[in-house]
Description:
This protein is an alpha/beta fold. It is 28% helix and 32% strand. The protein folds into three domains: 5-100 and 191-221, Periplasmic binding protein-like II (D-Maltodextrin-Binding Protein, domain 2, 3-Layer(aba) Sandwich); 102-189, 3-Layer(aba) Sandwich (D-Maltodextrin-Binding Protein, domain 2), CATH 3.40.190; 224-291, Alpha-Beta Plaits. The protein is built from eight helices and 15 strands. It is flat and about 75 Å long. The model has no long low-confidence stretch (mean pLDDT 94).
Amino acid sequence: MTDRLxxxxxxxxRLADESFAMLKKCGLNFSVRGDGLLARVKNMPIDLLLxxxxxxxxxxxxxxxxxxxxxxxxxxxxxLASQKIEKDMDIxxxxxxxxxxxxxxxxxxxxxxxQSPKDLNGTKIATSYPGVLGAYLKDKAIKAxxxxxKGAVELAPRIDIADAICDLVSSGATLEANGLAPFATIxxxxxxxxxxxxxxxPNKQAIYDRLLSRIDGVIRSKDSKYIMLNAxxxxxxxxxxxLPGSDAPTIIxxxxxxxxxxxxxxxxxxxxxxxxxxxxxxxxxxxxxxxxEKMMN
Length: 297
Ligand code: PRT
Ligand code: ZN
């Protein structure tokens, strides 16, 4: 086996661009071209295996790849499907990555008789997620038939294949265009990094540790901002409380002004316009919000 860490990534699709962007932010230098199955990272001993997202959990479980970036929906489906046939997959979520967010929802005709999960008894539900849906129905003791479809699930009620559907929803436009309305969310999903319980050799482990610490830095710096402002000295405590996800700001005296200080802080949560308005109302002036490119603790 090679000592290069191998990561499975979706080749093309909704996850691909953001997965590549995240790895590039981690400093990995690679290019994805044409029909290649493998992208070699030039500046680190890492290879990217470029595949369909549905294959990623299996590649990680089988050891063909050390890690994978995939939608939590696909991860959950593969794990639950493997339990059903009693071939448990030894894979786990290592990190939540915060992109490609969507919800796996139950939906039915906007003005039909199915308006809540309990109305599903005795119905047929079309889905590409029979594992996740089956586990949900079992948990809620709902007796319904699952009709498995690989795509175009939203068309099932219209062509009388099913009474309801269970599908991914992002903006909700697809459901709306098909006269369907969601009535329950059965899974909140985002891109995740998955790994297996297998032990890595020392070389791979060292590359992995380095990569993971960079991924953590990228995740943390994504919503983080650096805030600089001036404030009356007596308002520092009140202002610090308003700053989202910041505990110990730096306070710097301003020359020639005893009453004013400059305050600088890293905010680890989103800074909204509302936050700035609240800061201003508390006496802050000259407020600057700067992006943070990288972070490492
Ligand atoms: O070819 P390959 O098998 O690799 O890709 P794929 O076609 O199976 O998957 P792809 O690229 O469509 O999606 C990859 C992953 O993106 C999914 O597994 C989810 O984790 C995530 N994701 C995020 C979504 C959506 N948002 C999404 N909206 N995947 C699919 N959709 C579809 C949904 O199925 C429905 O048809 O978009 C439609 C709904 O979108 P809205 O915005 O109209 O609600
Ligand atoms: Zn797929």
